[in-house]
Predict the structure.
Amino acid sequence: MSLLGIQFTLLAGENVPLPASSTIMEALESVEVTHSDEAHSGFQITFQAGRHGSSDLKDYPLLRDSALNPCNRVIMIVTFKGRPYVLMDGIITTHELTPGSDPGSSTLKVTGEDISLMMDREEKSAVHPAQDEASIAKKIISSYEKYGVTPDVRDPPISDSPTPNERVPVQQGTDLEHLKAMADRYAYVFYVIPGPTPQISTAYWGPPKRGDPAQPALSVGMGPESCVDSVSFQNNSLAAARVQGVVQDRATNQSQPVQNNPSAQPSMSSQPALQTQTCIRQKILRGQDGFRTEQATAKAQAMSDSSNNTVFVQGELDTQRYGNLLQARGVVLVKGAGYCYDGLYYVKKVTHIIRRGSYKQRFTLTRDGLGSTV
């Protein structure tokens, strides 16, 4: 499918995805692809599901095409300004057929999730003796090499490789659940990034990438220079929290006070909520007995860091006017909204909405307070 100089390519198949047939591409109405740093990234493809002539009396032609069968792999590529971007590498999970009484009103919606779905299919009871979280993450991700997934694992602020006499790290649940649970201990994230070439993906386990170079600016309220169609800003003064508590250190058997420190993540605002607001919530660290003081401190820091986002931005932009594909899990500059809300933001989620003649992107941004730093 081609629109306004943007080329959309769809590959689908059971084992090795192949270019979709002309029947599939001619029936394609719209595509939505969502990238997120928390939940599964996913997609939904909407097709016109008409039946024409005696050859279609038995069933809809799209349902007879095995390329779109559930559990098949789907790869979507957008070529923008001559550069190809792998927008999605995922698995079909659901069909939704809506027959219509009027000609051309029947639709088939094909829904799926990114390749990390393969990590979430089998619950396991497993042990990882004498291994820290980073080593466990690398081992789990490497077991999905057959899907073209390579690990990008960042070391956490502390490394804990317990001896079997101390404790044995245990996994109860799917690989994806365990990767996310380990990430939560340090306010880390886990997600799978498709590309840069088809059938290749990178599984990232580490801190949110708030220190990356900023993407091209999102211009708001600047007349013909604006690329954002709609936008809203929210400042939640009750989101931020400080954490403190007491832990009985397993090595010394002594009770030690624990509290969070200023975040190691770079601040994106000139007035961080944790430093400037007076209505900060106070949380107590519980359930950390049996851990070292350093581990409990890391957990307290993770709880504080995960509550650090107090400003949220939601909006929609026109891709042609923006001149770029906004990438989730990175940094972007906002300008034209005034001093309080201008500046750098972390891109938490992006939904690409592609139709013939139209390419929009819905986005969710966040940061730790008011005021621009740039």
